[in-house]
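queue> pop job 88
queue> type: inverse folding (structure -> sequence)
queue> payload:
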């Protein structure tokens, strides 16, 4: 689960992490009060969306002006004008895609006199099963470019959970950032507090970009991006309350209610599969035969008829879907349950696009019988390769050329 910058800073502030003072603005009428409380002389107005690159982004609407999603105002009136321009308009960044995201929340923050900018992040390193720090002197930049062009400027290390955070970790960050004296001591305190917040709140990622040194010699987190482990949200009702569903795909929200692993993609063939590995293979073979998947959907190994029905409805709710491929290998999952769920969903919502079903495994014959006797216009498939060719052909794709490529590869 992701949260907005202003929410992330509030979480960090509770752990003693130094952040600039700011106020969220959820309605244009709140702008004047927020700007007045900060007092100036510089105000920073920031669009709050779940995407990076806001400063270099652009708004679709002419009323929003030509500037990006992060603007410096030199008066309270100018800050208020920026709010009126940005709120409710669509911001396009390198991470939103061409559709952009509507700005429903803004953040007005006090300006900071910046002396230096750094990069600091924390994440769960699956290779070591530890919390890892990533630190660089190249803050405020695209860290991927830094990693590619000048990897020597990035320092990484992990923290042993048996010891937890130690002073040596803070000193390592200070050394990596070339900080000394009081700034090095501040870095030690900051690292300890960030680690405490990361562990206590079950974060999966925490990014500070930039971490700055102000002209008066203070370390401060100028931006903050936090992602939380979705499997641990139940332990943190305060964090769950921060969820902004307007930033999420409606179909993904609906899927989460049924414990379905669903991700919207850009293609035209809807997929319903059991098992993440099989789902990935299904998407790959659809691409091989010249089409593209409209979603990733893993119904899991123990799906019920109700869960399958919900999954099918979510797929058909996507107007981009021109055909559906159901690919089930029944181990724990029973093919007859899948068949009953598909039939129930089709009878409930109708079937306006081609449907190819491939079943294999537990109760496969019963599942095929149920579908065959349902009277539905379903295209049966013998195996995954056959299923992919049939669904691509059914939506007007290029399965034949894909088949030739597949044979050539062998």
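queue> result:
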């Amino acid at each position: 689960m992701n949260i907005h910058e202003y929410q992330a800073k509030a979480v960090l502030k509770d752990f003693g992490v130094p952040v600039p003072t700011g106020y969220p603005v959820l309605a244009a009428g709140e702008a004047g009060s927020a700007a007045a409380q900060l007092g100036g002389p510089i105000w920073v107005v920031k669009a709050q969306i779940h995407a990076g690159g806001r400063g270099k982004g652009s708004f679709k609407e002419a009323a929003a002006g030509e500037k990006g999603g992060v603007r410096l105002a030199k008066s309270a009136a100018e800050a208020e004008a920026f709010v009126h321009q940005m709120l409710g308009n669509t911001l396009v960044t390198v991470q939103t895609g061409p559709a952009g995201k509507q700005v429903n929340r803004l953040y007005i923050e006090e300006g900071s006199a910046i002396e230096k900018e750094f990069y600091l992040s924390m994440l769960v390193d699956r290779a070591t099963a530890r919390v890892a720090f990533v630190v660089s002197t190249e803050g405020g930049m695209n860290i991927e470019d830094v990693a590619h062009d000048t990897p020597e400027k990035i320092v990484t290390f992990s923290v042993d959970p048996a010891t937890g955070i130690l002073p040596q970790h803070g000193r390592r960050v200070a050394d990596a950032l070339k900080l000394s004296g009081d700034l090095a001591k501040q870095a030690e305190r900051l690292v300890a507090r960030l680690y405490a917040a990361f562990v206590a709140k079950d974060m999966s990622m925490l990014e500070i970009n930039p971490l700055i040194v102000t002209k008066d010699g203070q370390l401060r987190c100028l931006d903050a991006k936090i992602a939380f482990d979705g499997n641990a949200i139940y332990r943190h009702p305060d964090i769950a309350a921060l969820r902004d569903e307007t930033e999420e795909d409606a179909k993904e929200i609906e899927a989460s209610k049924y414990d379905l692993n669903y991700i919207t993609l850009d293609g035209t063939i809807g997929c319903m599969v059991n098992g993440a590995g099989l789902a990935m293979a299904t998407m790959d073979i659809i691409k091989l035969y010249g089409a593209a998947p409209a979603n990733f959907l893993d119904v899991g190994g123990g799906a019920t008829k109700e869960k399958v029905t919900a999954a099918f409805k979510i797929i058909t709710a996507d107007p981009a879907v021109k055909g559906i491929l159901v690919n089930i290998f029944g181990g724990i999952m029973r093919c007859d349950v899948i068949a009953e769920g598909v039939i129930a969903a089709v009878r409930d919502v109708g079937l306006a696009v081609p449907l190819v079903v491939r079943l294999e495994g537990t109760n496969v014959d019963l599942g095929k019988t149920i579908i065959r006797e349902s009277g539905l216009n379903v295209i049966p498939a013998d195996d995954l390769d056959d299923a992919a060719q049939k669904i691509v052909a059914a939506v007007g794709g290029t399965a034949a050329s894909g088949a030739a490529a597949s044979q050539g590869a062998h």
